[in-house]
């Protein structure tokens, strides 16, 4: 799938000092529900940060509309995000190929642990 054009508008942007991250709620207008990996790159470009620091937590679309409401966490440091975000959220934010590689490496490491 080619990169779609998203119209992103920020609804809410607040800083969480305890977790050292920005918690952003955006409204995304697109032809279909946006893919997380493409949305992550588009949001990173609009906020002028690295895509490694951006995690899409949820993306909800209403029936019959082309607008999605997404919750996104933005960290200053990619390592901080890897420590705080759950593994399933980190996997969801990868592209299909990257996700398949990560899942296969996890299954290999688990079989090694059982031996």
Widest sheet: strand ordering: 1-2-4-3
Output mean pLDDT: 88
Give Rg in angstroms.
16 Å
Sheet with the most strands, sense and barrel status: 4 strands, antiparallel
The total tally of domains equals 1
> Which fold does the CATH topology refer to?
Alpha-Beta Plaits
Number of strands: 4
Low-confidence stretches: none
Q: What is the helix/strand order?
A: EEHEEHHH
CATH class: Alpha Beta
The global form is globular
- N- to C-terminal distance: 40 Å
Observed structural traits:
single chain; 115 residues; alpha+beta; Alpha-Beta Plaits; four-stranded antiparallel sheet; 4 helices; 4 strands; 38% helix; globular
Summarize the structure.
The chain is α+β, with helices and mostly antiparallel strands.
